[in-house]
Hints:
Radius of gyration: 23 Å
CATH architecture of the largest domain: 3-Layer(aba) Sandwich
Number of domains: 2
Bound molecules: NADP nicotinamide-adenine-dinucleotide phosphate
Structural class: alpha/beta
Distance between the termini: 60 Å
Strand order of the largest sheet: 12-13-14-11-10-16-17
Number of strands: 20
Number of helices: 14
CATH topology of the largest domain: Aldehyde Dehydrogenase, Chain A, domain 1
Shape: globular
Amino acid sequence: MPLSGTGVCIKEHIKMAYQTRNPYTDEVVKTFTPHTDAEVEAALAAGHALYKSDWAAPANMAARLDTLRRLADVMTERKEELARYISIDMGKLIGQSRGEVQSCIDIARYYADNGARLLAPVPYPDVLGEAWVEHHPIGIILAVEPWNFPFYQLIRVAAPAIAAGNPVVVKHASNVPQCAQAMEDVIREAGAPEGAYTNLFISPDQVAAIIADDRVQGVALTGSEYAGSIVAGQAGAKLKKATMELGGNDVFVVLDDADVARAAKTAVGARLYNAGQVCTAAKRYIVQAGAAEEFTRIVLEAFQSVVMGDPLDEASTLAPMSSKRAKEDLQQQLDRAVANGAKLLCGNAPVPAQGQFFAPAVLTDISRDNPAYFEEFFGPVAQLYVVENDDEVVALANDSHYGLGGTIFSGDVERAKRLASRIETGMVFINQGGDSVAELPFGGVKRSGFGRELGDLGIKEFVNQKLVVVAK
Ligand code: NAP
C-alpha cells in the first residue's frame, strides 16, 4: 500500500453499493437503497430530540438498562438467524458467527448489569469542598464500522451509548447491509425508542456532513488506517471527541522455554480465525531459535490441511475472504512481498473454484526494506521471524507503525510479564491468543488508533465527566 506524505497508508475509497454479495456463492442476495440527505436529517432530528428528552436523563438509566437486557434476550432468541446474516454477508464460518452473536449478547448483558455502577458518581478529595464527578450523556454519537465482525463492532458502541443516554447513528460497511439493518431491528424490538439507534446507508460525504453537524458530539470509527485518518481529521476539524480502532500488525511471540506445541496450535487459530480478517490476528510470528523448528513444522502442517468450504457447513475450517477485492488486494501484497525477496514457506496452493478462498501462506526472510515488513496482511498470511534473545523480540515487536495487541508464550510467566511491559501495544496476552470480552478494555496505540471500547474505560469515552464541588 502506498504511503502518503504524512506516512499514513492511503487507499482510494471506492464507492460501493450497499449490497450483500455472498462471498461463497458470489450471488447478489440483496441490495439496499441508500438513505437520502432528508432521511439523514430526520435521523439526526430524532436522535437529538431523544437526547433532549427524559430518555437520556440519569434518572431514566434503569429503563435504558432494561432495553439492553431485552436486547440480549432478543438476540438470544434470534441467534441462529443473526449468525446466518453474518455468514451470508461476509462469509464467516457459521460456528464463528454464532460465537460473535454470543459476544454481542454478553456485551449487552454486561452493560445492562454494570452500567449503573460504571456511571455512578465518583467522589474526589475534599480540597475546595465536597467534590465528585458525575457522568452525563453528551449527544448523538456517529459510529463508522467495518464488516469483519458485523454485529460485535456495532454493539461495542451501541450498548455503552444506550446505557449512558447517547443516541447513535451508524454508517456500517457497504458489504454487510443485512447485518446493519438487523442490528437496528433487534434494538427496536428490544424497545429502544425512535432515534436511539439509526442505521444509515450513506456515502463518505454524508458521513462528513454528519460529523460537522452541531447535534453530533462524538465519532467512533473502527476500520483501516486510511478511513481512520480521514474521519479523525474531520472530527478534529470540528472539535468532536473521537475514538479510533484501527489496524494492527500484532506479534505472536514464542520464547525458547514455551510449550511449543501448545503455542503453535494457538498461533494457527490466532492467524486463520475469521479467514485471517481480524485486527488483532497474529500477523507476525516471532519465535526464538530454540523453538523455531517444532513451531514451524506444526504451523505449516496446519496451514496446509485446512478445509475450504461452504461457511454454512460445519465441516469447513477456513472461510472464504469477505470479497473478491479483499482477496485480490491480499494476493497483490503477497506477490509484492515475494518480489521484494521474502520466501514463501507455504501458500499459493490451489483453492476451490467457487468462493473467494485464499490459501494460507507463511512468509519468512522479510527484510526491513520489504514493504511487507510494515504492512498489515488482512487475511490468512503469516510472517515468521526467528530471533535469538528477548531484546531482539522487543526490538522487532516495537519496530511497527501499529500498536494494537500481541501474545507471548513462555514457560516462565514472570519473564513473559517483563517482556509484555516492554511491548508498545494497547493489549498483551500471555500464554493465550488475543481475545475480547465485555469486561476488558480494547484498543491500541500508534497508528492502531486511540481511545478504548468495552469495559469501564469504553463507557467513559463518550460521557461528560462533570465535576461538581460544594463549598466547605
Ligand atoms: P475500512 O475500509 O476502513 O472500512 C471501515 C468503515 O469505514 C466502513 O464502514 C467504510 O465504508 C468506512 N469508510 C471507508 N472510507 C471512508 C471515508 N472516506 N469516509 C467515511 N467512511 C469511510 O476498513 P476495512 O478494510 O473494511 O476493515 C478492515 C480494517 O479494520 C483493518 O485494518 C482492521 O485491522 C481494522 N479493524 C480494527 C479493529 C479494532 O478494533 N482496532 C477491529 C476490526 C477491524 P465502506 O464499506 O462504504 O467503504
